[in-house]
Each structure stands twice: as C-alpha cells, then as structure tokens.
Design a protein that fits this description.
The chain is an alpha+beta fold and about 280 residues long. The chain has helices at about 5-15, 40, 55-65, 70-80, 85-100, 105-110, 205-220, 225-240, 245-250, 250-255, 260-280, and strands at about 20-25, 25-30, 110-115, 130-135, 140-145, 155-165, 180, 185-190, 195-200. Helix 7 (about 205-220) packs across helix 8 (about 225-240).
C-alpha cells in the first residue's frame, strides 16, 4: 500500500509543477493549482471536524505525517457511527487515493469535458463549473474544475471521483449534463521554466493543423513534403506553439528551445530537411 505522503507528492508533481491549457472551441481554460487543493482531492474532507484536514493545514498534516493511511482508518471509525457508513466513506476515500495517479494520463489522452451548471444542480454537493471525464479500462475518472476569483478562464481542481463500469451509478456525475465540449488540445507548461509542450491533440485538430502547415509551405513556395509536414507538426507539439515560416527559418532560436539531446535531434532532423528544401527553391 502506498503511503499517504507519497500519493500527495506524486499528485503535487502532476498538478502543481505544471499549468494546463485546455483548448475547446473558441475558449482556452487555464488550469493552475497549488498544493492546498490536494487534500480535498484525496478525500481528507471526510475526516475529523468539517474541513479540518483540507487546505493549508491538511497539506501540512500530510507532509509532516501527522495523518497517515493508518490514521485515516481510525478517524473514519471515530467520526462515523455505523459500520455501513464507515465502509462507504472508506471506499470513497480509497477510490480517490488509489486513482489520483491516473491524472497524468487523464490530461495526455482522450477525455470529455462537460459544463456543470451549478444553478441547475443546487441540490448537489458537487460545486464545480466543468467536469473532465476520462475512461481507462473499467474505471471512469471525474475531475471537477472550478473558476478562480483571480481571472477570466482561470480554473482550479476542486474535486476528484472514481466510478467503475459495473457501478449502478457509474455515470451519475455527468449523465444529465447537456453540454459537452470536444477538447482539441491540451498544452502543459512548466511553472518554473515556462517550457510548453502539447501533451494531447485530437485527431481532427491534428488533421486541421497538417492542412494549415501544407498551405503555409505552399504559400512560401516550399514543397509540402510529407516528411517535412510531419516534422513541423512534431515541433509544434514538442514546443507547444505553431511555428510560422519566419520561426522555422530562425535556426538559432529553434536550437535554443532544446532542453535535452532528444529535442536537439528533432530540431536537427528538421533543419536538415528544411535547408534542403530551401536550397531547391
């Protein structure tokens, strides 16, 4: 069994080290988080007094190991009288703890985004503005996104749930939600280095981007070679930006983006083919 502290640290690595830009039609949702959001995602709100182990103190208690996997069990048995209630609360908490490690996959592969209209769901305890849903095997992950007070289109994670395909209420969180958005891409940005990378792109969005690259090359009088288009697409994904012909011509700037040997090899492969195509004009 993984330690509570390890789950906290692993979740912090995914959610707090990076910002995520979720692209939908005509909008980009900017998702940013601090470690004080994590205890709630872990289910610590069900322990002790109301919200005793969430926020700043919850994060502190987990990091100092004042609350552990063993004390979670003890607190649940202390806080809830009946065995059935204890069983259901422990199951809910462990579903969160066991599956928070899937968040990285949730952002980097196909997920669905629903608008969760709080005004039409006033009886629900679920207080999010959007719901990100991801199916992986028999599991369905649900991540709630709530608007920040600090700016338009800025969001934080405020809930995390897991259901399973054999649950009677497996889709209870989203089956009545009428508005669903297709995510075209998700860009991850390192908070410290500001390094951006496309970690998910839909097949439709990728095809549109390929067509755009082909038109750009044709307009510049450059042969739209299949391999060249593929390399430019890889550059766009790797560095999280759409490269224009001026940017592609700037050899020094492209090499300056590289953080490791693999990226240098990608840029070098592109430049070799790009300069060959330029020479043939």
């Amino acid at each position: 069994m993984r330690k509570l502290l390890q789950i906290f640290q692993d979740t912090k690595e995914v959610l707090c080290r990076y910002d995520y830009y979720i692209h939908i039609q005509k909008r980009i949702l900017h998702l940013t988080n601090s470690e004080i959001k994590i205890p709630h995602l872990m289910g610590m709100q069900y322990l002790g007094k109301p919200n005793q182990f969430t926020g700043d103190f919850g994060a502190y208690a987990i990091k100092k190991q004042r609350i552990t996997m063993e004390s979670v069990e003890k607190l649940v048995r202390k806080c809830y009288k009946t065995e059935e209630k204890q069983r259901r609360i422990l199951e809910m908490i462990h579903r969160k703890l066991d599956n928070l490690g899937e968040l990285g996959e949730m952002f980097s592969s196909y997920s669905k985004l629903y608008l969760y209209e709080k005004e039409k769901n006033k009886d629900s305890e679920f207080q999010s503005d959007y719901l990100l849903v991801h199916e992986t095997g028999k599991k369905i992950l649900h991540l709630g996104l709530v608007k920040s007070e600090r700016g338009k289109d800025l969001y934080h994670c405020n809930s995390f749930m897991t259901t399973y395909q054999n649950d009677r209420d497996k889709d209870s969180f989203f089956h009545d939600l009428p508005y669903r958005y297709e995510i075209t891409r998700i860009v991850r940005e390192n908070k410290d280095t500001k390094y951006k990378e496309v970690i998910y792109q839909s097949m439709e969005a990728e095809q549109r981007e390929k067509c755009g690259i082909e038109k750009m090359l044709t307009a510049a009088g450059i042969q739209a070679d299949v391999k060249l288009i593929k390399l430019i697409l890889r550059l766009n994904k790797k560095f999280g930006t759409y490269h224009t012909t001026d940017m592609l011509n700037d050899r020094e700037a492209l090499l300056g983006k590289c953080k490791d040997k693999r990226e240098e090899n990608l840029v070098t492969d592109f430049l070799t083919l790009w300069e060959k195509q330029q020479d043939s004009i």
